[in-house]
Structure formats: structure tokens, C-alpha cells
Give the backbone structure.
Amino acid sequence: MRLSKLFSNTSKGVPSDEAALNARLLIQAGYVHKEMAGVYSYLPLGKLVLDKISNIIKEEMNKIDALEVQMSILQPKDIWEITDRWDDRKVDNWFKTTLKSGQELGIGLTHEEPIVDSLRSFVDSYKDLPIYVYQVQTKFRNELRAKSGLLRGREFLMKDMYSFSLNEVEHKIYYEKVVNAYFKIYKKLGIRDKTYRVYADGGIFNKGFSDEFQTVIDIGEDYIYLDQDLKLGINKEIYSDQNIKKLGLNKDKLVVKKGVEVGNIFSLGSKYTDALGLKYTDKTGQENSIFMGCYGIGVSRLMGLIAELFADDKGLVWPDSISPALVYLITVNTDDSSLKKAEKLYQVLTQNKIEVIYDDRDKRVGEKFVDADLLGIPFRVVISSKIDQDKFEIKDRTTQKIEIADLDGLLKKLLKK
Amino acid sequence: MRLSKLFSNTSKGVPSDEAALNARLLIQAGYVHKEMAGVYSYLPLGKLVLDKISNIIKEEMNKIDALEVQMSILQPKDIWEITDRWDDRKVDNWFKTTLKSGQELGIGLTHEEPIVDSLRSFVDSYKDLPIYVYQVQTKFRNELRAKSGLLRGREFLMKDMYSFSLNEVEHKIYYEKVVNAYFKIYKKLGIRDKTYRVYADGGIFNKGFSDEFQTVIDIGEDYIYLDQDLKLGINKEIYSDQNIKKLGLNKDKLVVKKGVEVGNIFSLGSKYTDALGLKYTDKTGQENSIFMGCYGIGVSRLMGLIAELFADDKGLVWPDSISPALVYLITVNTDDSSLKKAEKLYQVLTQNKIEVIYDDRDKRVGEKFVDADLLGIPFRVVISSKIDQDKFEIKDRTTQKIEIADLDGLLKKLLKK
């Protein structure tokens, strides 16, 4: 990508009402645009990051046999009344709207009811199970306050998955497969070592415990008690001697930290499937309940969290896996020979499927250095008359280390990524 | 894909209130689920078709230097009031909702205002132009009636693109590039020969003419007068001797047909950019207006149109380019040798990146034949003991022609696609 063609190369200003560091940086670097509190649009670089996070998640979901769907955002009232989740006094963060006929509609905040409802057209027998479906979809929650940038959106992108199993035993086997897939996702996103499986309250979903995945960060809204050796924890909401014992944790080893929830999974039992009449007939002809689970990951929240977690005083620092490009290319001099060298390197890297942002803007080189840091691209490659003609200067955005290498060395370094 | 793993392999029934053929077929074949009139969810096969259409469109948009973004669905009232498009008496198909604070929000039906607004953070000078941005996004229109299945949704997937040029001359050059890109898209989708460029009313966008792309089909809601040699037409809305003359058409050659609008493009001038204060400074330091265009294609509408256009009495007939798979594989016999042969073919095709739906369900072979037709997969490949051990029966879904070929012949046929 040539930066001269990218309109959104660093913003003229950040809204004065934007308090969250993640959003301030993402706005300043031209990744997102703030529409209102808790609502952001994704500009070209932001869309690339969002797609890369989505694709990492989709890949792991596909590996555990989940099928991708796309449910509607508009929700008919009737199926939510059956499960008693329509009334604002029961679920207090619905956005609602109205058809011309006066009929009320919901604007999707989660999708248990419509998924179960749609499966009624397909499920009869034990042969039709298990079913695993997921979607990556824009969701809406009418939050009273939304001051955490991309971490708590009124509109946000989410992966939600739903499993339907013959019984609790089969459900639990799949549930643990999902836990495993989630950790693979966090590893690819570079946050595995800061992310813990944390027991939490079932929330509106069930009365037992649920599993959260919490990434430790100072700005977190949740308090979590962690066993750092076991990589396990317990949310403050359910922190009690009784629960610690029940979960087999050692109270003396637990340290309290702040965390941001980057995933959650719930065993729903047959609450929704029974309510909406989704059942199966077993081999003996008897009707049985279907055991359901649901599994969420906030895609735009992850983007905000990763932005905030790795940022330094110079700007964003993306992990290679989700950076809009691996290389930020700058020429210090603008003589023909330098430009030719840059052009050639741009072609070679592109041919090697290495993504490059080439800063070919008509700007002072100092500004380009500042923007290279602000945008958070993993490697800054500089072409300068002060370096040997066949060499390049490579700076690692994370470690700030600078080295000089020839084309072979550069390619070797980048292709390892 | 093994059909035994796909929960949505043909539905138990079609809702009695579904009048549109495209939706009836797509529901019956398990591609979509109806949530309410004009609102559909996309099941795994439907999601695949939708993604393939989107990707064809994205590819052509990227080729003409448009950058992908994702604007928010929730819309703040203020920017729409500036252009006088907030009031329901001015734009009569908004869905609206309310924040807890009582503040009214819109639910995105188009994105001129927010795009222009977001560009204010980036545009100053003539050097910042041109800008071309697009998104593929779920949009919402509060239609009074929605009886045409996927052809007129209350919730639908749309590609919307916006161009920002220095002046009208540069705008027109890009405008014709988009016309060209649109025809490439329709060609890839298999509907080029039935699709016409049709002059139409500017609608809510401008007072001059706009360009529509209309696909001729009996169920179309628009009447269009076509010159079939020129591949040009004029919408009934603006059909008059004066306009026919103005557009250089020959009245005697025009024949009236029904069409479905599969794309539209508008010159917006500086209506929105001026209103929202998006201007640029030219080389002499003078402030100038920015010339804007907008370019839409309905993605889910195209899916409905193509479903309806090519369907026959046996079911759907997908063009190769957007079919969820190229091959539907059936074994007539279930002896070990047949199953082994099928398994091997499934592997070979998959290795050759040919997408296969393998009907490995525990069903009668007659039912599988019926479903192969209903699902509309381009080639049905049958393994049967009545055919030579090293041969396969191939049936073309469109022409219904059957031929026998060995593996080499089969691969040659499929890899040409």
C-alpha cells in the first residue's frame, strides 16, 4: 500500500471527549473514526486489523467443525417473549425499533433464541446432532455509559458460537475443545501469556459458573483473583471461601488483578432449546432435550485491548499477526537512486507476499518517522544515502533495536514471520 | 463438505406466508431462514454464496483503487439534520432507535453523511484527493411491504461506494470506470447478457439522471424501455419524448420489459460535501467544492435475483462462480468399493481445490438425486456399479446433459471452470 493513496494517514485531531487511550491512539493513527460514544467506524487500516482478527478466529472455529452463518440483526419480539428476555426490565440493554405497522423489533444483542428457532426446521433425530454454528457479526447493546473506547461499544463486532449436543457429557467434551481453540486464538494474537481462564458468574445465562477469558491490564473493569502458575482465576463476583474450595483453588496463591474479558463461554443446558421446543428423538423413539452452549469473543474489543496493551509513548505497537502490514518503508533522500531502490524493494517484498506500507507522501522525513511509530507497524525499513547502497536499516517497533542488513538478510528476517 | 455434517441440508418446510419464489427455493434448500417479512438469516450454504458474491464485488472495487472501510450502523441525528434527511417526512424508510439518555439514533440505510463527516479529519488540500471508499455492509430500510423475498429486504447486504473528486471532469472519468467494473461483476455472476444500463430518475439523491443497472426478469418491479442492440435503456419514471431525445435514444427501437435493479450510481455534485463543510484548497490557496459520487450494488438482492432467474422446476441453478460447491457427489451403492471410490474422489477433488458437497447422508439415493437438483450445484457426479469401475457419471445442472468420463476427463472438465 502506498501511503499517498491512503486518505486516512493520521488524523488532524482527536475528539476532546474521547477519554480512552485505545480509541485516542486508533483515531490519531487513522484506524477508526468516532461516530459517538461507544460507536466507531473502521477506516481502511482499521478494517484490515479487524479482518485479520476475524480471520484468526474463523480459522480456529472451522478447525473444530463449526459452520459459519449470518443471522439477522432485526429480531422479532415473539421468540424473545417465550424465553422472557424481551422486557426491558429483564434485559436492560436492548436497542429497539418499530416497523411502519407499529410492530416492535429488537436489534440483535445476542442470538440464542433465533439460532434455536431456525434449527427447528432441521432437527428431528439424534442423527441430526451435534450442531456447531458461529457468526462474526455486528452487535448492539444500549450501554448507559460507553467511555472505554473499543472496549465497551454500543455497536461492536463479535464472534458468537452455539453448540447443540445430545447430552451433557458430549457437551462438555466440545466445551473443552472450544477452551483449547480460544487459547490458540489468544496465542496467535500475542496475548496468551497475559490471558487467564477465570471462573465467573453465569450472568443472565445460567445459575452455575461460566468461564471467562480475562487479559490482565491496568485499565480492566473486572477484578480477578489469579493463580498465576495454574493460569486459572476466579472473578471477584463469585469470590468466596466456599467457591474457591468448590473450584479446587488455593486461596493463598490467589493475587488480585484487573482484567478485560476477551471471551466467555456458558453451558446453557436445555433452557432455550426446551423453551422453544427444539428436541430430538433418540434410537428408542423417545423425545429428549438438547444441551446447548454459547461461546463469545469480542472482535472489536480485542482490537482495542491489543492497541492499549502494547502501546508505548510513541504510539501503537501491533503484533505481526494482525498488523495492517509487516513493513513501513521510508526513503530519507528523494534522489532518483533512492526512489528507484525503494520502488524495487516495494516490488520484491510484495512479490514475496510481505505486506508493505510505503510512505511515499510528500512530507518531511521526520514526520514519516513519527508516523511509522504511531501506526505501530512491526518493522520500519529505511533507505538512506548514509547506509551502503545494497543495505537497509531495519528497526523493530517493539524492541526499538536497529540493525543493518542486505536484501537477503531482510527477506530472511521478514519471511520467518 | 460432507452433507452429513451440514445440519441445514434441506428444510422441513417453507413458511406459508412466503410468496416469493427466490425465498421459497432458498428456504427449502436450506440456504436461508426467514425471520420475518423482508428479514432473512443466512445458513452455511447461503453464507457461502453471499461471501462469494461479496468477494467478486470487492475484487473489482479494489482494482479501481477503492479502499474498504466499515462505517457504523448506528447514526447520530445531527449530521443528517444538516442535509435535511433526518425527518421521516423527508426520508420515509428510516428505522430509528433511542439511547438510554433519550437521544434518538438512526439505523443506517445509506452512508453519504457519515462518510463525508469522517473525511473532514483527513482532507485539506488538493493533494488529499481523489478518495474512493467502499464497504459491504448490512443496511436497513423500513419498507411498508416486503413481499419479494431477498429482492426487497428490510435488512439486506449492500456494497456502497463513494468517490470524492477535484471536479466534475475527474468525477466523470471515475464514474465510467465504475460502470465498467459493474459490468465485469455482472459478467462474473452470469447475468451480463440480461443486464442493461438504464437511465433513471435521481431519486432522493439529485435532480438530474442517474444510472441504474437493470436485469430483465418477469417478476421485476420496474418497467424499462430498452434498446437491445445498444444495451441501453430508460426507466419508465423518466420515459418522455423529450428525455429520449436528450439521451440520444431511438424511440422506435425501444421495447418495454420488466427489470430488477441490481446496481445504481449517482453523481451527487457537491450537495453533501458543501453541506457538511468538506472542501479542499487548490494550488493557488483557494477553497473549492468536492465533487461526490455514490455507487451501490445489492449483494443479498443479487443472491435472490440469481436464484429466481436461473431456477427451473427442480430447484436452484447456481452459476459456477457463486455456487457453494462445483460438485455434488453421490454414490448409488453403499458397498465398500463404492464408498472407497467416493472417498478417494472426494480427496482428489479437494486437493485440486475443487469444492465438493459429498452426500454421505444415510438416505435413499432417490432423495439424494432430488436434493442435488434442489441445491443447484453445477455438476452432479455419480458413482454407480452400473458404470465402469474407473468411470464417473457427470450431469450438468443447467443443460441436464449426462456424460461418462474417467478421472482425467472429469478433472479436465472441472478445472476449466
In short: Chain B has a mean pLDDT of 95. The first helix of chain B runs from residue 21 to 28. Chain B touches chain A through 60 residues (CB under 8 Å). The radius of gyration of chain B is 24 Å.
